[in-house]
Design brief:
170 residues; Substrate Binding Domain Of Dnak, Chain:A, Domain 2; rod-shaped; 5 helices
Length: 170
């Protein structure tokens, strides 16, 4: 039935226009959700190898090790440099102040990444891995049932045609 429909040799039962619209919206939602999820992951972790590592930890159900952000690493370097130059020197004092500000910025960045992952990315993943899979499964079932219906309609049409032909010919 599917092949005959694709070749244009069989009639296809059309679905309700409202339902077709819902299916199109569902596809659009899935596509945009995937794009937004991927781009947000890139924004939160620009390093591709770190993203792959985090993905593997996720799939293995292991805790992702905490990474030091670039701001925190810069703060650490500034603190070490301040100790080398001497905390009493003007340069050392400046490095300590700026380093502390960088440490706070780095901690805020880490908190933001963690928060965004939990409150934003998790619901998107849940939609794609849960709701979307259910939608796709139900869509396949509906398609198979529609193909079965169309095949039965085609057989019925052939049977009626054969019956009509048999009654016409003596």
């Amino acid at each position: 039935q599917f092949t005959e429909e694709k070749l244009g040799q069989a009639e296809k039962t059309e679905l309700d226009a409202h339902f077709e619209n819902l299916l199109a919206r569902a596809d659009c939602t899935k596509n945009w959700t995937e794009k937004i999820l991927r781009q947000t992951e890139v924004l939160l972790q620009p390093n591709p190898s770190a993203r792959v590592e985090e993905f593997l930890y996720e799939k293995l159900d292991r805790k992702v090790p905490s990474r030091v952000t670039n701001g925190e690493l810069l703060a650490q370097y500034m603190a070490e440099a301040a100790n080398d130059f001497g905390p009493g020197t003007p340069y050392g004092k400046t490095l300590i102040k700026v380093g502390e500000a960088q440490r706070r910025l780095g901690a805020a960045e880490r908190d933001f990444i963690h928060s965004a992952s939990i409150t934003f990315l998790t619901p998107l993943r849940n939609f794609l891995e849960g709701d979307w899979r259910t939608i796709a499964k139900e869509r396949r079932i509906l398609q198979n049932r529609r193909l079965d219906l169309d095949a039965c309609k085609a057989r019925l049409k052939k049977a009626k045609a054969a019956e009509a032909k048999a009654t016409v010919t003596p």
